Amino acid sequence: MTGSTASAVAGTTQPPRVTFARASENAGLHFDHVHGGTGQRYMVETMGAGVSVADLDGDGWLDVYFVQSAATPGFQSPQALHNVFYRNLGNGTFAAASRISRLDDPGYGMGAVAADYDNDGFTDLYVTNFGANRLYRNNGDGTFSDVTGKAGVGDEGWGTSAAWADIDDDGNLDLYVANYVDFAWDNHKFCGSVQRDLRAYCHPDVYGGVADVLYRNQGDGTFADVAAAAGVANAREGKGLGVVFGDYDNDGDLDTYVANDSTRNFLYLNQGDGTFFDNALLAGVGYNQDGKAEAGMGTDSADFDGDGRLDVVVTNLDLQTNTLYQNLGQGIFSDVTFAKGLAEPSLLYVGFGTNWFDYDNDADFDLFVANGHIIDNVESFRDNVTYAQPNHLYRNEGAVFQEVHEAMGPGFEPLKVSRGSSIGDLDNDGDIDLIVTNNNQTADYLRNDGGNLAGHWIQLRLVGRTANRTAAGARVLVTPLPDGSTPGTAARELPIVVEVKAGSSYCSSSDLQLHIGLGTATAALLTIRWPGGRVERLGRLVGNRAYVLHEARGVIAQRGPTSQ
Amino acid sequence: MLLPHPALGSGQEPGVLYAQALTLTRLERFREAIPYLEKAVAADPGNADAWMLLGRLLTQHDGRLEAILRATEAFEQALEQRPDSVEIHLRLTRAYRRIGLYEEALELLDGFATAGSMAFSLALARAQIQMQVGSYHGARATLRHAITEGAGALTYYQLGIVERNLGDLDAARAALETANRLRPRLIEAILELGSLLITRQEFATATETLRRAVEVAPENAGAHNLLGLARLRAGDASGAVPYFERALALEPTLANAIYNLALALRDLGRMERSRATMDRFAVLNEQQETDEIAENRSTEVAIVNGRGLYYYRRGESERAREIFERALELSPEDGLVHFNLGLAHVALDNHVQAAAAFERAIEINPTRPDAYAALAIEYRALGREEDAARMEARYQELRRDAPGR
Predict the structure, then answer these.
(1) Is the pLDDT of residue B4 over 50?
(2) Which of A195, A282, A384 lies closest to B166 in CB terms?
(3) CA angle B198, B204, B208 (to 5 degrees)
(4) Pairwise CA distance, residues A366 & A489, whole Å
(5) What average pLDDT does chain A have?
(6) Contacts of B103 in chain A (CB under 8 A)
(7) What pLDDT shows up at residue A2?
(8) DSSP result, B58-122
(9) How many other C-beta atoms can be found within 10 angstroms of the C-beta atom of residue A337?
(10) Cβ(B53)–Cβ(B37) below 8 Å
(11) Which of these three, B77, B105, B133, is where a domain ends?
């Protein structure tokens, strides 16, 4: 909450304590998710919805777009249910602006993902629904237009997570949409314990899979579904809930990882031309270490071990553990969940949203997991788990991850049924905050207090020119430099590798601006590989500042942290 | 044949019939013994031994639902005669579990106490049911109590499984290690411990444990697979391959051994063979997963159906009706359950509903003779003589065409 980070870090032996405040109430983020259930336990009710954190009004402050459910058959809502857009007023508070911005989508919402798909300088929004999805084009004047029909992106399946990426390096963002199962109101089935007269939400095995959709951006405001031609339409095994793009094989193009629920996960490697082959099995990321499919929910990728390769985390059902796949290179991953200390703490929890982020600015990726069981009456079936669960934060300590959420203050205290999660520096103070959605409950804004004092940082907003303007897929190698050092005397052997991601976690998207913790280093060198292949190197950039970097033009703006 | 069949109406004494059944049982002609026992208990319902043997033979040598239901009745009759019998408690508990009467099984065990080794068997049975109904903390308490009373390896093994489900892997490991120490040849406990050690990345100990497993059970494909996995996870892919190959020689469709073999070959750089092996895994795994899902669903429906029949046969027709209706929510196209629902409605004098249920059963399975017979009766009760006659005719046709006639 204060900007004087450099002096706070220098000379301290014990890093300042980082905590997360429960800031929703004071910030005016009063989003209350309503699943619209009546006791019939339609499967869709329990899946919750996600959230997008993005600067949708272009004022330099991150806004929040919450996705709302809708009525199930027979549900009478006291108020109209629609998605809610909160504008960040820049003073620590937010104001709902859904109607005026025309972002009040009334569908049975699942997810949202932000990016500037038409390269006009304004961030647009794609919303997935149980039912037709929607594309909202940012008009640049605080309003959005529903251009779904014209764009041709209104897939009517049960859309969940979506992600933007330029899969063919033509400068236009394409769109991957994960579809879940073939559930519909009229094929609702009884699940649960007949013996005990207990209805419960159905397992995804009860329904068939649905192929995902891949929309190729044709550059004229329209898209074409190329999933089949691109090799990503696997209806038999596709029960997608999580999607994250990244260059997993370090070959310069964007691959995608899809977390499927109860069927194996997909690792689609880009063959350089926007077509993919699924290498999940041989890579060892399709199944768990016993060769069993798990209940993949959310997913995110980051180079957690600093070896220059993107690793993947997938959240799963209780007694499965979340799974951390370490990228060993050569197309091979290893399940290191237990070895890294992430298994036992997650054994009795159902993970959904998940984000890699450096909450304490110590120059490595920590891990957040949003938890909440699927079965609302699970305690009637089993006494080893609960429906509402604590969210988890794991600190990266090099060899292992340490479970730290219990020491993280009030933000981690409530037991809720969490689903989506998204990260960003909502108060522009130099540390990363969290937004978490909860099923049929109020959402939470977990404000990071003290992260900016624990370590130095740098923020980079990349703007493509020949590359897509969002710079989704851009890879940045950040080499932290100790105070007073010169290039060549880096604080660490290997640079920190980060990529711009437009879509990750569970049904959510996070800020497109990169935030990199620098630890005790006070400056950084950058190497940027833009989508399309252009590589730029930038000399010493001073830490504790946010930079706007344009492709081929370098730094065009910068600012320090804000004190609200 | 030395014995006249009881259906021939021999008029033999109940004691003689029971003795004849015992002789057949000793000769391992179990199925033949069953009719003698039925006759014996019909003639002398107070013969607990005959009830007990009937129940045993039905559960052990005839797995059909009808047989389990009849066995349940037999054990209940036996228990009435001998309320202090631990063995009857155990057998009746098992029979209850097979038709999903978990609460009844727990109730039965809760109202009974005994000492010594049989008490441990009861504790194990109780804990298993508690796990089935999701009461892991209850199961843990049951097993821990049995351990304080001196229970042995099996109880520790079960406790290990319970602790794992409660997320306490340290406690699981300790319990499984004790089980292994107390009974070093208990293969289930060795495999469980080995698997847990692999999960916890303790590969050297896992390897040592699983080497013991393949010594104890050299024909156990799962043991070889796990030993291979321990080697693979330890980074010894070439050392792992022979174990996977041995597992697959013993059980060619052991999917996770194929998967592990593919990964080991990949790690060894033998990509072509790895790909081919992984393709084999994908095909097999898909089939096994599909079969497993279908089987789980069908087992679930069968259990619920069995429970309904249990109450129907006890004369609790309203309860049976409710259970069958719920079973149909699980499986709306199950002709057998529709038929059973019809029977419950008949018992409740709901002739319209009964006729509708039988009609549905016939729609789903048009070659089921008893449904036509039952529907004919219901049509007659509803005054629909013509329809009844049509159904009777169809019934006769099907009986005439039935195989074996």
Answers:
(1) no
(2) A384
(3) 90
(4) 25
(5) 93
(6) 196
(7) 38
(8) HHHH--SHHHHHHHHHHHHHHHHH-TT-HHHHHHHHHHHHHTT-HHHHHHHHHT----SHHHHHH
(9) 26
(10) yes
(11) B105
pLDDT digits (tens, 9 = 90+) for A369-409: 999 999 999 998 889 999 999 999 999 999 999 999 999 99
Residue type, A358: D
Q: One-letter amino acid identity for A385? A: V
Residue B337 included in any domain: yes
Each residue's pLDDT tens digit, B350-399? 999 999 999 999 999 999 889 999 999 999 999 999 999 999 999 999 88
With a pLDDT cut of 90, the percent of chain A lying above it is: 87
Q: Is residue B189 part of a domain?
A: no
Which has the minimum average pLDDT: A323-327, B80-84, B205-209, B294-298? B294-298
Q: Is B359 exposed, middle or buried (0-12, 13-18, 19+ CB in 10 A)?
A: middle
pLDDT tens, position by position, B148-158: 988 899 999 99
Contact B330 A190 (CB under 8 A): yes
Evaluate whether residue B376 is within a structural domain.
yes
Q: Does some domain include residue B6?
A: yes
Q: What is the pLDDT of residue B330?
A: 80
Number of domains into which chain B is organized = 2
- CA pair distance A84, A68, nearest whole angstrom: 7
Cross-chain residue pair B329–A383, CB shorter than 8 Å? no
Instruction: At B64, give phi and psi (nearest 5°).
Output: -65, 155
Domain assignment of residue B340, given as a range: 308-401
- For helices B48-61 and B30-43, the axis angle rounded to 10 degrees is 150
* Pair of tokens at residue B261: 């073999």
Distance CA(B379)–CA(B373), nearest Å, equals 10
Nearest chain B alpha carbon to A378: B134
Q: How confident is the model at residue B405 (pLDDT cuts 50, 70, 90)?
A: very low
Buried (b) or exposed (e) across A142-177, using 16+ Cβ within 10 A? eebebbbeebbbbbebbbbbbbbbbbbbbbbbbbbb
pLDDT over 60 at A494, yes or no: yes
Lowest mean pLDDT among A327-341, B114-128, B337-351, B366-380: B114-128
Closest alpha carbon to A152 in A117, A111, A101: A117
ipTM score of complex: 0.86
Chain A residues whose CB is inside 8 A of the B258 CB are 291
Tokens standing for residue B135: 């009461």
Kindly determine whether residue A382 and residue B327, on different chains, have CB atoms separated by under 8 Å. no
pLDDT at A15 over 70: no
Q: What are the φ/ψ torsions at residue A22 (nearest 5 degrees)?
A: -85, 100
Query: Is residue B403 very low, low, confident or very high in pLDDT (cuts 50, 70, 90)?
Result: low
What pTM did the predictor assign?
0.89
Higher-pLDDT residue of B101 and A430 is A430
Mean pLDDT of A531-552: 96
CA angle B49/B55/B59 to nearest 5° reads 145
How far is it, in rounded angstroms, from Cα A3 to Cα B26?
89
- List the 268-327 stretch of B: residues with Cβ below 8 A of A: 271, 274-275, 278, 281-282, 285-286, 289, 293, 300, 303-304, 307, 323, 326-327
- Measure in Å the smallest separation between the Cα of A505 and chain B Cα atoms: 25
Instruction: Return the residue in A188, A191, A194, A336 with the most chain B beta carbons within 10 A, the one to mutate for interface testing.
Output: A194
Q: Which residues contact A492 (CB under 8 A, 6 or more apart)?
A: A306, A363, A479, A480
Query: Count of CB atoms within 10 A of residue B301's CB?
Result: 18
The residues near A494 (Cβ < 8 Å, ≥ 6 apart) are: A306, A307, A308
- The confidence score (pLDDT) of residue A485 equals 62
- CATH code for the domain in which residue B346 is found: 1.25.40.10
State which of B105, B123, B141 marks the end of a domain.
B105
Helices (DSSP H) in B183-270: which residue ranges?
A: 187-199, 203-216, 221-233, 237-250, 255-267
Torsion-angle region of residue A231: left (phi > 0), alpha (psi -120 to 50) or beta? Answer: left
Tokens of B388: 């009844």
